[in-house]
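Hi there,

I know you've been waiting on this one. I reran it after we fixed the sequence typo, so this is the corrected version. Both the input and the resulting structure follow.
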Amino acid sequence: MSERFPNLISAVAPTLAELKKLPIHDQGMLLLKRLAFHFPRESFSPWNLSRQGYGMPDPGSLATGFPEPEIAETVLYLLDAPLRYIQREGYIAERLSRDGFFDITADGRAEINRDVTIFVPNRVVLAALCFLHPDLQGFEHYFREHKFKEAIAAAFKRVENRFNEVRDASPSPAVKSSSGATLPHDLYKSGDLKFPFPLLAAGNPKSRAGYEQQLRSFLGAGVGLFRNAFAHEPHNLPDYDEVETLEQLFIASHMLRLVDQSV
């Protein structure tokens, strides 16, 4: 979901933790938009905006909509790194009198009026990341940066590397030269990985062999199809949205769990 810059910072980042996870450019733009809303033509003083007294944790209404216990800290945060960012970029400038008051510059007003968006990740999708294999639980930044194909490529790269780790730890010379899509097959054949469902078709060797072959083929596809396609030909793959990316990550997650169960 993409949203135009709103007047309320909390419409994009409803908590201080969410605000801090945004790229600093987006944090600065949200602050700039809020300042322009309150001070369309007037100068403003960051010091005055930070004066938290007399039961007023947010005298400039910068953090409207944030949880009440976070408002004071959010104001101080906004007037630190995000404020310094928009000053460094030339979007605000101190008045020539050097009295601590700032104006929004022409560049700043042009930036405010530019048709730009902040990508707001689906919070349900982000919450679901905690159910992934531990090796993939740090992938939230891909969703915040709108890098969906990169997330999928990194997940299946981890699958490939997990097989490489098992190979490198193997005492079997037969697997040392194996790699890529054939490596899962070779690791199961060498005994380095064991079929993780010992009761499945335990009394039927033919069926059991079929299950084992299908498992090896499934895991081999993690490298031969997903890993290779996203690494070498991402431009020939369709664009993925958040939900489709999450689905792919769960495929990689399940593959990693199967390897863990097979070691």
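Quick highlight: Strands lie at 2-4, 92-94, 102-104, 117-119.

Best,
R. S.
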